Amino acid sequence: MRHLLALLLLAFTGPIVQAQIVANWDPKPFVTDSAMVFHDDLDFYLNSYSKQEIKGMRRMVNIWRMNFDKVIRATIDDIRTHSEGSGVATRTKDFELPVAQTGARYRLSADTGMVRVFMFGSITNPPARFQLPLWDALQRKYDSTRVRLFMIYGRELHPGDQKTYRDYPAPKSEHEKLAYAQELGRTVRIPVLVDGLNDAVLDSYGRAPNAAYVIDRDGNLVFRGTWADSRKVEYIVDTLLRWYDAGKPKRLKAD
Q: 159 falls in which pLDDT band (50, 70, 90)?
């Protein structure tokens, strides 16, 4: 199982198209009395990926099931409902979860003073698996005393699907879910936090399976994205750090 996971991650780190930030998202932030805030990118569709990248993800899942299986269709409908603004968190919601790699517990509110960026994902979530190596690279770019990136292991997206995920049915216990998260956690350096079997943290933030959120150093939720696009994350974090370094001006000069 471990060898399969390593091969899948290598497949996703093949030629990665690092194009410019997609044109249908406005990257220009606005400054309030207390924060620099970025426009949401809440869209059901995988608009951040090239056609080639999407084809690669589709090969990992059973397209017939996505179109006709009642359970999968219900999941997709649920994603659509919660990926375009409905039910998506508008404020930071505190949580405390175990870290799969170490067993230590991480509490969001206790980690103030730095920019925190997290995405949701799982071992059967192709977009999350695609992004993990990119997020790993981003964390290496930044000073770890200023920026923390991590993943929250949420609900399985394609449990037991195709040969790719046949060994990963939906977990039936906390122990089984932790084992999945630990296996995924061994492939990355960023922390993988483990949501409960009831996915309470995922549900509180809006249930989009690979959503990304940026929390500034004061605890403000300053970006919400349906899909965890590393390019947007990098742009947002770079801009926030420049703003802090400039003394938090009302207007930030273009880089």
A: confident
